[in-house]
Every structure is written in structure tokens, then in C-alpha cells.
């Protein structure tokens, strides 16, 4: 769920710029789906996973960040967001458009 909140923030930023919504991408698919396809193709998931594992083992600040993300306080924020009607409408709309499945597919290598 926390990953979903971060992804929605990225989508909101991309959606704020018309050039992201209407341009055709190199994949030939326009809009958000095309952007997500290109992003997924560029992400070196194996290298990022190794770096994350390394940082979790050695970097105090990364460890603190993960502790905060797993805290009851952050969980409460996420629960509050999940009760927000506007958030739920946006999530439902993204699900109907197939965007949530696509995002889950991008981040599946991390699971």
C-alpha cells in the first residue's frame, strides 16, 4: 500500500504536465501507459535491489526511513488516505484504465 501511495504521487506529477498525457512515446503507445512502458524498460531492477539490500544493511538513514515507513504513524496516514473518497475514486479510475495492473507489473520484480 505504501508503494502504491508513492506511485500515485508520481502519476499525479506526470498528469500535471500535458506533454506527458498526450505525446506518443517510442513504444508507440501514447499517454500514461506509454510512459510507464518506457520507464519499466529503463529500470535496472536487479541493480536497484542489490543497492537497496546493501543500503539496508549499512546505511543508518535508510534503515531509519524503512522504520518510519513501517511505523504505526505512517500506517495511520495510509489508513486515513484509504478512507478518502477522492483517493478511492482516483484508485478506481486507475484500476479501470488498467494502470494499476501495469504499475504492479513494473514493481513485481521487487517482490
Key terms:
111 residues, flat, 8 helices, Ins_allergen, mainly alpha, signal, 0% strand
Description:
This protein is mostly helical. The chain has one domain (2-110). Helices cover 78% and strands 0% of the residues. The protein is built from eight helices and no strands. The chain has helices at 2-15, 18-22, 31-42, 45-58, 60-69, 72-82, 85-96, 99-107. Helix 3 (31-42) packs parallel to helix 8 (99-107) and helix 4 (45-58) packs across helix 5 (60-69). The longest helix has 14 residues, at 2-15. The protein is flat, with a radius of gyration of 16 Å. 2% of the residues are buried. Residues 16-25 have low confidence and may be disordered.
What can be said about this structure in brief?
It holds the Pfam family Ins_allergen_rp. The protein is an all-alpha fold.
Helix-strand layout with pairing:
Blueprint: H1 2-15, H2 18-22, H3 31-42, H4 45-58, H5 60-69, H6 72-82, H7 85-96, H8 99-107
Helix pairs in contact: 3-8, 4-5
